[in-house]
Amino acid sequence: MAKSSIEWTDATWNPVTGCTKISPGCKYCYAERMAKRLKAMGQRNYANGFALTLQPHMLELPLKWRQPSQVFVNSMSDLFHNDVPASYIKQVFDVMRRAHWHQYQVLTKRSERLRDLAASLPWEPQIWMGVSVENQDYLYRIDDLRHTGAYVKFLSIEPLLGPIPKLNLQGIDWVIVGGESGPGARAMNPDWVREIRDQSVQAGVPFFFKQWGGVVKSRTGRSLDDRTWDEMPEKAAHIESNPFPVLAAPTR
Known about the structure:
Layout: E1 2-3, E2 11-13, E3 16-17, H1 30-40, E4 53-54, H2 61-64, E5 70-73, H3 86-98, E6 103-108, H4 111-117, E7 127-132, H5 140-146, E8 152-157, E9 174-178, H6 190-203, E10 207-211, H7 237-240
Parallel strand pairs: 2-5, 5-6, 6-7, 7-8, 8-9, 9-10
Antiparallel strand pairs: 1-2, 3-4
C-alpha cells in the first residue's frame, strides 16, 4: 500500500499517471514536480515523466490490500482526463466496486467529462467523488458534481486562490480547504478561508482545513482560529464497520 502524507486520506492508488494543466490551480502542480523526481530516480511508472500514461498493472492493487483504508485515487493524475478512455475509467470503477472494504476519494478538475460519464458508472457507497474549485470562476464544477450519483460528494478548494463568497453547498457532503505549497506558492488570505468555513458550518457540511501552505508548509501549520478542523462526512462510518471479505481478495 502506498501510504500517504495527505491529511485527509490513508493511501494513494495511481492506475493513471501524468496530466496536463487546465486552470490556474494547476500552475505549480505538486504531482508534476513529484513525477519528474520519480523519473530521475528510475521509478518505472514514471518513465514518461508527467506525460499521461495508463498503468494497467496497477489496476487491481486495492484487491490485495487487506486493511480497510481511505484511498485517494490518482493523486498523480486526473482519472477524467480526456485522454483516459472511458473503458479504462470503467475498469477503475469496477475495481473500486469489487474491493468494497476501502473508501475511495476520486477528485477531478474535468467536471464536464465526469458529468458526461456519470450515468454509466457504478456509484457504490464506498466511491466518493469530488471536484477541485480554486476560485469562484470554477463553481460550475460543483453543479456538474451534483449531477452524479456519488454517495459522498466533496469539494477540494485547494489551492484556494481567491474569495468564494457565494458557495452553494446543496447536495455537498464535505468541504476541504487548503493553501498552495511548494516553490512559487501563492498566498492565501485567511479571510477567504474563514468565509468558506462559515458557509460550511451554516450549511451543516463537514469542514476540513488542510494547510496554510507556503514555500515550506510545515512552518505555517494547519490551525485556523486556534483549532484544527478535521471534520469528515458522517457517511464514512459505513466502511469502517465492514470486515475484510477474505474471498474477495485475489488468491494468486
